[in-house]
Specification:
By secondary structure, the chain is mainly alpha-helical. Helices cover 76% and strands 0% of the residues. It contains 13 helices and no strands. It starts with a helix and ends in a 6-residue tail after the last helix.
């Protein structure tokens, strides 16, 4: 989830390069707010009712964001950060922005991100750390990641060179951190909350580094998956719950159920995307770029 917040901040950087702040807010409203509202009334109720029916509970629904809380957060971050981001663009050659860009191209950038997320944990004290949805922890962590995602791209080639050159070191650090946490869990030792943001940043920077190194080129598969990501995110709970209601009743081993559930969820989401991308009104409500 934090990785997606970083990516969203990066997306805003690119979106604002050819838009005024009014155009950016209008574009983000169409691509985030419209799908968010549509999902509250047309997507979330479906998987809630599937869940209720499976557990033989009374069918009912009170409008709520459900798993689409992420979109609501992103829209708020965009509104809150737009004045700052456009100030940065207007003062691109100023002392503050120049210093920020230079900082983002140095190893201290990684330390700064870790310290910011560690500070968030110390102040908010989330329990558990992984509970992001509709919590103060998820909101503030997302805001920090969103801002630094913007700053990463602001750092330009210097930032990408920094993490690509250290990609194996970042990956090794993430693996070691994961190993330590796994050992602590295996012996019922308490996992220090400050470990999790550091491990999280190591994994995220590893993903960015290897992605930039090996996937930073045009391609039909990447283009297709890039377009599909948004609708898949919006719809996956419907097929996950529907598949669960079907698969969990089958007299097969748990690993088989797991694989079947993955196949059903992925097939349902991508099959729906094939319809969505061909129908203009559906492209609109699912936040896809209009042809």
């Amino acid at each position: 989830i934090p990785l997606l917040f970083f990516v969203s901040g990066m997306g805003v950087y690119y979106a604002m390069q050819s838009r005024s702040w009014q155009q950016l807010l209008l574009e983000r409203s169409r691509r985030i707010l419209v799908p968010f509202v549509f999902g509250i009334f047309c997507i979330v109720p479906i998987h809630v009712m599937i869940w209720s029916a499976y557990h033989k509970m009374p069918l009912g629904y009170v409008p709520n964001a459900g798993h689409l809380w992420f979109l609501g957060n992103i829209f708020i971050y965009t509104i809150v950060c737009t004045p700052l981001f456009y100030w940065i663009r207007r003062n691109d050659s100023g002392a503050v922005v120049t210093a920020l860009r230079r900082w983002m191209g140095s190893p201290w950038a990684m330390v700064l991100v870790m310290l910011a997320l560690v500070a968030e944990v110390m102040i908010v004290q989330p329990r558990p750390y992984e509970l992001y949805a509709m919590t103060p922890h998820g909101f503030f962590l997302g805001l920090i990641a969103f801002f630094f995602g913007f700053c990463f791209v602001l750092g330009g080639d210097a930032f990408w060179s920094l993490i690509v050159w250290r990609r194996w070191l970042l990956l090794a650090g993430a693996v070691v951190a994961f190993g330590i946490r796994s050992y602590e869990l295996s012996v019922s030792a308490p996992v220090m909350p400050l470990q999790l943001p550091v491990e999280s940043v190591l994994w995220i920077l590893s993903v960015f580094a290897f992605g930039h190194r090996y996937l930073n080129k045009p391609g039909r598969v990447l283009s297709y998956l890039s377009q599909a990501a948004y609708p898949v995110y919006m719809l996956h709970m419907i097929f996950l719950y529907a598949g669960s209601a079907l698969v969990f009743r089958l007299p097969v081993a748990l690993p088989v159920q797991y694989v079947l559930l993955l196949v059903i969820t992925l097939a349902g989401c991508l099959g729906s995307f094939e319809i969505i991308r061909r129908v203009k009104p559906l492209r609109w409500v699912f936040g896809l770029k209009m042809r």
